[in-house]
Each structure stands twice: as C-alpha cells, then as structure tokens.
Amino acid sequence: xxxxxxxxxxxxxxxxxxxxxxxxxxxxxxxxxxxxxxxxxxxxxxxxxxxxxxxxxxxxxxxxxxxxxxxxxxxxxxxxxxxxxxxxxxxxxxxxxxxxxxxxxxxxxxxxxxxxxxxxxxxxxxxxxxxxxxxxxxxxxxxxxxxxxxxxxxxxxxxxxxxxxxxxxxxxxxxxxxxxxxxxxxxxxxxxxxxxxxxxxxxxxxxxxxxxxxxxxxxxxxxxxxxxxxxxxxxxxxxxxxxxxxxxxxxxxxxxxxxxxxxxxxxxxxxxxxxxxxxxxxxxxxxxxxxxxxxxxxxxxxxxxxxxxxxxxxxxxxxxxxxxxxxxxxxxxxxxxxxxxxxxxxxxxxxxxxxxxxxxxxxxxxxxxxxxxxxxxx
Length: 378
What we know:
378 residues, mainly alpha, Fic-like fold, Arc Repressor Mutant, subunit A, three-stranded antiparallel β-sheet, 15 helices
C-alpha cells in the first residue's frame, strides 16, 4: 500500500480549498537539518534584539518610531503608499480623519491595529476569533466580520508576465467553514503542547494557515503580519512588538508569494519556513542596528545640548524629539515638560543648532528630526 502524503495539497486552485488541512501539520514537514540550522541563526538574532531592547529605559524611543515604519512598509506590500511628510505630519497631529489622505490614513490605521491588538491580548490573555475580527475592523475601518457565504475571493498572480492576473489560489468559502478553521488556528496558537515547541516555527506555520484561510474580504495580509509579532510577544520572545518582517518581505516579495503558493500547491513547507526564518534573522539584526543607531544619535545630541547648559531637563527634551520624526510645541507642553513659550524657544534653539529643522506644512509648524528619519528609512 503506498504511503499517504504528509500534506494534502489544494487540487484545484480555481475551487475553494475547503479541505485545507487543520493544524498541527506532520512534524516531518519541518524537522530538517536546513530548517534547524536557520532556526539557530534566527534565535541568535532574536536574542540580540531582545537583550538590547529591554535595556532601554525609555521604551517610547522604540514604540513610536519603529511601529510607524512597520505600518508604512506592511501597507506598501499591499500597494498602499504614502510620503514620509504626509505620514509623519499626520502622526504628529494624532489625526486619522477625513483631512488625511487615504493611503496615509490606512497606514495609521494599521499602526493602531498593532497596538489595539497588543492591548487586546494583554486584556484577554489568549488569541480568539474576535482578536482577528478586531484587527480586520481596525485596519479596514469597517464593521464587517468574517466573509459571508456569498462572498467569493481569490488570489491572482501579480507582476506583468504572461501569467499576470491568473488565479493562483482560492481560499475556503462559507462562514461556518472559515470559523471552524479559525478556531482550529486559535487552539494551535494558544496551546503550547501542540507541536512544534519552537515559537518561531509555530509562527511560520500559523502565518501560512491564516493567509490560507483568508477569512476577510480584504486586509488579510496585513492582519497576518500583525499576528506574527503578537504571537512572539505572547510567546515571551519579545517584551514589546518591535520586530517586523515587512521590510524583508518588500525586498523579497515574489519569494514570499511563491513560497506561500508552494505549500498549497506542492506541500513544500520547508521552503516557506526557511523563508520566514531568514526574514526573522535579517529583520532582528536590522532592528538591532537601528536601535543602536537611534541611541547613538540621541546620546550625541544630548551631549551637544548639555554643553549649552541653558536647557532645563535636557534628557527629557531629547527623548521627546527622538520618539517620532516630527515634533510640535504641543508635544512638549502636553507632556508637562515646559510652558508653551519655553517649549517653542527650546525647539527653535535646536533648529539653530542644526539638531532639528523647522518646517511649515499646510500652515502648521513642525520640527523635523532628520537624523532619526534617516535611520528609520534605511
């Protein structure tokens, strides 16, 4: 009698994959030498990042700037683009309204989804189906939930080649089918006794499963990338959600879609898991370098400011201008650091020193930290 396949693939990419296998998958699909060698490198990189981030006394230096960059990069994967000026201005104004351009609004909503999802898990303790629905609603600014039975969706081939526009995958269909598969995914995420034991492997498997379920009309890719970081914080690999894979995915976008398709079409879990582990390795080391660059720039500016000897609370002032690329007078006054005239005087002085650049955009004054912006961008 022939051996049964380890993974039952999607036999017809034009028909809904309602037989998408439930989790867990057979451990022979990921217990390879190549995967465990790459896993070791990814864990080493994660250890560097974790050790560096927890040693920073002011976590706001990371929370605002790095999550904002992730929001922009993850949205760009879905061809939602915004300029730095538009994004940083809207973020500094704390505005997600009709006065903000559509793409900028989508990016800021993505950032809100990161933090609302983080708080949701802190409050509820575990993943559940409502967690996924709340992410979707925040990202897309909708009251919809799981795709209704009449809603057909499918994935098309991107690019401009001969196969561009062709259907490459059709996710499961039917609200009960989708809910059952989401509930299985939730159980997989919450139960540490369900293999694999390694959280990075589990994250890679869970990400594919969510994308394969594709439970919403839109926003599935962004919700799936937020799930990655939330699972790592839930698994105690990170204290704060500051590791993001979107920059790596942008740089290796076709491979991302090819390896996803490789699982559904050929059962090639190894290539997909290796891709995600390489993304973790690369992104953790990149984020580690960015954190060091931000802290070095901050210390250099602080030293220059303290040399002036005419700034009150210089450390708090410099922390404030390094929490986001655009600073306003109101940021300092609302934080209780200074009265309005003092705040304006100090920011103008930093402009004269070349630390900040004073700009007027749409009638409002901002002080741009170009050094921080350059670190975040490259």
